[in-house]
Amino acid sequence: MTEKSRLFRDALGHFATGVAIVTARGVDGAALGLTINSFASVSLDPPLVLWSLDRASDRFATLMKAGHFCVNILGDEHRALSQRLSRKGESALDAGEVREGVERLPILKTAIAHFECRVEHRHDGGDHVIFVGRVVDFGHKAHGNPLVYYRGRYRALNEADH
Ligand SMILES: Cc1cc2nc3c(=O)[nH]c(=O)nc-3n(C[C@H](O)[C@H](O)[C@H](O)COP(=O)(O)O)c2cc1C
Questions:
Q1: Is the whole-model pTM more than 0.90?
Q2: What is the CATH number of the domain that holds 104?
Q3: What is the mean pLDDT of each run of 10 residues along the chain (162 residues)?
Q4: Which of 15, 32, 34 has most ligand 1 atoms within 8 Å of its beta carbon, as the pocket-test mutant?
Q5: How many domains does the chain have?
């Protein structure tokens, strides 16, 4: 990484985000997950969301083939899970961690909110591919403190409004 791209990444890190796990099923039926913070809402009507996938990811081929994905929003208690699913070669989800949604989509049981999506578009995004999903089902828990990512570190939101 060049000095300029490191500075660019550091500047981007000043935008505080939530953290999510994108889950999907491979062609072999196995559930996989990937930690992301590129999630954004796009449209209310129709209901669309987006996230972007690194072309260099080992999970790239599998996720490009998936017709559906689920964005699972993480809570403050999910730091270890977020770290695990951001490690190379660590994409597997235990059967006990997930339940099934539309099209057998794996949904994290403990997510504070989730969005089950059908892939609507895939756009070129430089070294990433931008996935736009049409939300076919969603839900959220009544309570939950979000996991926050800011300047390369996990943080807790101190002023949560319950
Ligand atoms: C907080 C956080 C946010 C991340 N956001 C993204 C993202 O939006 N898109 C992406 O492709 N990878 C993202 N990553 C990287 C992947 O989780 C993961 O590190 C990488 O895909 C692992 O390599 P592999 O996919 O080649 O196994 C993020 C990692 C962390 C820790």
A1: yes
A2: 2.30.110.10
A3: 95 98 96 98 98 98 98 97 97 96 96 98 98 98 95 86 54
A4: 34
A5: 1
